[in-house]
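Inputs:
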Amino acid sequence: MNVNNVKTYILLPIFVVVLLGILWFSYVPSPTIMRLYEQDYPNEYVPMIVTANGTFFLSSSFERVWIGAQEVQNEEGIISIPKDFSPGWYPLIIHVNGKNITHNNALYVTPVRLEDFTFVQVTDVHTPCYNGSDIQERKHVFELINNLGPAFVVDTGDMTDYGLEEQYRYYEYITSVLDMPLYTIPGNMETYSDPHLERYAYHRGPGNYYFYFDRTLFIAGAGLHSPRSWGGFDNAQINWINATISKEADLIFFLHHIPIVAQQGRDYHYVPWGWREGHFSQIENGYQDIVTILTREHAFILSGHWHGYVDTFQYKGATFYNTPSVTRMSGVQEGPRFRLFQIQNNTITYDNVLETGKLHISREYRANNTQVTIRIQNDEGVFVPLCIHASLSPKIKSYSTNQGEIIKISVSGDVWVKYMAPQGESELIIAPGS
Amino acid sequence: MSYTKRLITLFHRPSQSLQEIIEHPCFLLTSLVIILCSLGYVIIAELGLFHSLMLHFIAAYALMVTIIWLLPTVITLGLFKLIKKKFSIEAYMEANALSIFSVVTIGFIFLSLFIIYSNFFAEPKRTAYFAMVYYNQWYPLAIIGGIGLILLLHRIILICRSIVKVKLYQFLLIWLFAAAVSMYVAYLFFRGWL
């Protein structure tokens, strides 16, 4: 080949090499996702959920502690919540090293019983960057979730459609309807315009943390390779997860966006390196380590990412849930969807996927707010465990219900009723009574 | 015929343009045009599809566009040479590059129109990716894609008849093989990396 021939074809190889170089240098295999340690809890991003008259743990190094305006005793790291605390959000003020530090919304007093609660997993909300009916549709999903009365909500990532600033703002607007805590982890979409997850950390806090609900441990571990739809864990993260998951608990949930173990591979099916030992995984770095840890602890793993799938896959004692998306998906009729879990005495008794359009809850207040009729239209094909909240008149000291069980009445007149909504139409009446 | 005219003629009289390529191949200039167009298309598409511009994705999508035209061109070139066909490599490369890219350009024009409609005039407004992937608005682009494939096939047949002078069954077998391999490589890159 002479020099002229080389000149003729030289541009293309240079172009391809430059592109490959850019791909290599702009790849962030382990984005900087904060990990929280003992002294960092609780905070506004990872609030502590407690019950009135219950206790929670705090670093014993904190000299004085206030919940709202009320000072509470820190007895070697154990804080007792006064019995008369109403359900709701409270700031936590701690005095350490001679100064007061305030964590707003760091404590949530739940009306729910610790031994019998529900929680919701939402995933792939894909909040768009334009306001309009797409935003309202997503807001409606969270309004319905709020009506179900879960103890808390977890969002397993892709909450925005590209990790843009306006999308985070709309996401905060959409989720502002929730009364209960919302725990989030980033998905691959959050890395697309923010590969180091700085914007995510600003809006949503850490990507690696844990929280307890009674004896159930929830660990959020964001294993991502930015900006790609494949995930993975570096050694530091694996060590953190290994140490955290070894904490004492009766039930362990691991929150992660990208499927770690699944029965199928969606449109990734024909990527040969996704198949491992008869199952599909979209995890590259640290795959063996994370699977060893999760199966050793018989954990329940909640993920999303694939939008249309409703899989539950058992593998070596661990259970991998793949939950469908809140966002609609071209070619998929169902949606928006989410998964509702019920935990009773540390056992999962309910783990169904629900579709927003098939469940309607409406309230009709009467008699000067001393009575409410709650109508439920349940077309989900299964019963739905609810914790219905009604804001009634505080002048009445005692209420009763025609169905379900009243689990809490606050001094402000808020009433919570635990109720299994059967299929079809049902009606719940809360009225003054003994 | 000037180089600019060669490019324009390719859209409505491809055989005339091919004749010019056979007589005066200029792959170096064509490479430059294609590189600049690839980058331009990718940048505009990324902005319209996602409202964001990331270096990683510019490189990734530009590489995808390059794989789509370069790989089948190189594979078919190798296979035609293997069956001892005599033709100008430079003319073949340039003819393929421009033929495929003229169709890509038609597709890009429609994508741009869809981007403008989706972002500015649709109710509700959506980024183009959001509209296509989540809200079933991919049909118009799929139709354009189908028309594009027919146009592409026509251009490739012209190249095979006028430059390589190959029998129809040989052309079909070789191009089917090259297209299948190239599509799988593009798929592996798109789903296996991105």
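Chain B is about 85% helix and 0% strand. Flag for discussion at group meeting.
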